[in-house]
Every structure is written in C-alpha cells, then in structure tokens.
Model the fold of this input.
Amino acid sequence: MGHHNPSDPKPALSLRRQFMEALKRAHRRRPASFYMLVVTPVVLFLAVDLLAHRDEPRRFAAGLILLVIFFGVVLVRAVMDIFEIGRKHLQEQRDSYRDTLGDHDFISTLTRPKKPSDREE
Done:
C-alpha cells in the first residue's frame, strides 16, 4: 500500500489547493527585499506614534534608531538583490551567447553558402 507507481495519475487538486501551491511557488521566487518593502507602510504607520513621544527623548531616540536600522536593512537587502539580478542577467547573457554565436556548429550553419536547390524563388 505504501508503494506508489510513478505512472499513476496524480489526484485532482481542488481550486483552493492549486491556489496554495501557486502561492508557495511565487513565494520561493520573490526576494526578501520584496517582503521588507511590503512591510514598510506598516512600519511607517506604527512610527506615527513616535511623534507622540517627542517630549520623552530616550523613547523618541530609541524609536528613531529602530527606524534607521529597519530602513538600513531594507536598503542593504535591496542593493544585494540588485547585484544578484545583475549577476543572473549577465550569466543568462553568457549562456545565450554560448548557445548561439559561441557555438561553432551554429556559426558554420549560418555562414555556409546555400545550394541552388535550397533557395526559394
């Protein structure tokens, strides 16, 4: 009973289950800075409370320090994501070059003169 045949069809998934699976796949693709940017409006909304504590310098300073740390982390993660995206882009460019113009067979096919029977009139 514990043996599963790979040729057996998968059971049909409900719409809710399909949605949850798609959401999991989307979360794996998103960088961490995306979630930090989503949380930013919440942090700013909660930071409005800081203005009420302007007369308490220590509490006000602690809140500002936390805000600066949060936005520093967001900035560092965003810069790291930019470099990672750039690195992936360059790698994909190199791979596509190797698959086309870097491939000797592909180049020889492009530069080979056409036979008269191959030409379309």
About this structure: Residues 33-109 form one domain. The chain has a mean pLDDT of 80.
